[in-house]
Amino acid sequence: MKPSGGNPHTIARREIIPVSAINSARYTESLLCAAVEYGVMGEAETAAVQGGLFDLLAQRLDHLTDHKSCTVRTEIAQMQLANLLYVLDMRLSAEASPDGAAELLLSRDLSVLYEEGLRRIKRKQDACMMQYRRMLSVFTALPESVFRRTAVDGIAAFLKTYQPEYWPGECVITADYPLYNPVSDGLQGVSFVAAYLQGMSEEAAFLSRFKPETLTRILRADNRMYETDAANLFRPMFTSVIGMVLLGKPFSAWKYGLDAHDAEQLSQMTFDGDVLSGAFLRVKDYLMLPRGCAEYCRRALPKLLREITAAQAHGVISHIFPCSGRESVQDNAPVTNVRMSPDAFRCLVYDLRECTSCEERAQLILSRAKGIEDIYDILLADDGTMGEADVRCTVELLSGQDEALVWLARTLAASQPFQREEERRLWRILCISQDRES
Questions:
Q1: Domain boundary residue among 76, 108, 140?
Q2: CB neighbourhood size of 70 (10 A)
Q3: pLDDT digits (tens, 9 = 90+) for 109-145
Q4: For residue 391, which of 339, 341, 432 has the smallest C-alpha distance?
């Protein structure tokens, strides 16, 4: 059969330097070594390239010192050499093959290749800025967290201060947020930021598939201090919906998260790559994940399987699948110096109206409320959201948290004589609860 297009008698050129011989993080250095090893360059040609590198380094140091100094510290020269090689890496790695890159080294002036590499870096910087601006509305819509602060502030600071003309390989960025799929080792400068921003964008695209109140519920079930801790937000949301699918829960129930009973069921399951892949396909279809986000999730599956296997072996499956049920609530007694934002409070009231049972409302209140003051306001709401059975069930869930119950009773007692039925109702239920405890 003749090859399609071109001269049918053309024989494909056999590449000499294998791709496996190239280290993508140190492209130019590894290319030189491989070119010598595979006979693409001789000693004289290698010496000429090395001489050209040192001549170019001298030019860069002269530019850096504004032509006012003929000597620089050794560490500065070493840093500039690393920056120079990074720029050449950007140009040479754009070639279709290592052989093509080696030909460029032999046939083109290094200063020309440097300028072409610098232009590629600036285009990548511009592309990062465009992606950042495109994703900014998604970043700012996420709950307050290290993720949001890193995305909104850290990346913006880098893009505004990055100067590829002077220090192209440097990467001064506050990247406190840990991606679930880490950036490849060895990336420098804008290459690192581009990969990091891409990872954050894919995680944000996944998180944005959920309402803010659902995010808050599940993230707080996983880590009550998620707003201040440098913890990954993608993992608890991803594992939660995977768990929902494996348990056969309907899509409408995903917003409530998993409970302790669900975790017990999951701990009895057998997990492998096929099980997780099948569950992920349903998640992808339910959430209508874009291609890049879906690929990011798919790459997360092997790591997730390792974590689940380790958690099962140690009997701590709930460390992987966050649970917002009774056990999680009782382990995290509400504090009295933190309040929900007005918007979060309104969202909670809206969700309470959609609940179908007293137990569901009570668990939702204790998983979402940031402090006992929030619970107090909800229990005394006069808009019909909470019935007597709902209030009683919520107080029962607080049993064992003496400090919280005492605070409720003292605060309510201070408002006597009671003017509203909601106050009398709560007082009656608290008294009954106290008698039962005694």
A1: 108
A2: 9
A3: 888 988 898 899 889 888 888 888 888 888 877 877 8
A4: 432
Q: Which residues, including other chains, have CB under 8 Å from residue 396's CB and lie 6 or more apart? A: 362, 433
* Pair 339, 424 in one domain: yes
In sequence order, what are the residues at sequence separation of 6 or more whose Cβ sits closer than 8 angstroms to the Cβ of residue 436? none
Q: Which residue has the tokens 């405890």?
A: 437
pLDDT, one tens digit per residue, over 155-188 is 888 888 787 777 777 766 777 889 999 988 778 8
Which residue, 17, 170, 33, is CA-closest to 95?
17
The SS3 of residue 258 is: strand
Q: Is 410 found in the same domain as 321?
A: no
pLDDT recorded at residue 372? 81
Model confidence pLDDT, tens digit, residues 339-379 = 777 777 887 888 888 888 888 888 888 877 877 888 888 88
Angle at which helix 421-437 crosses helix 402-413, to 10 degrees, equals 140
SS (H, E, C) 25-65: HHHHHHHHHHHHHCCCCCHHHHHHHHHHHHHHHHHHHHHHC
Residue at 57 is within a domain: yes
Assess if residue 13 is contained within a domain: no
What is the value of pTM for the model shown? 0.63
Residue 261, in any domain of the structure: yes
User: Per the structure, how many domains does the chain have?
Assistant: 4
* Alpha carbon distance 195, 271 (integer Å): 30
- Tell me how far apart the alpha carbons of residues 98 and 94 are, in angstroms, rounded to a whole number: 10
Domain that holds residue 66: 19-108
Q: Which of 298, 325, 352 is the last residue of a domain?
A: 325
Q: How far is CA 160 from CA 56, 101, 122, 190, in A?
A: 27, 32, 12, 12
Residues 90 and 122 in one domain: no
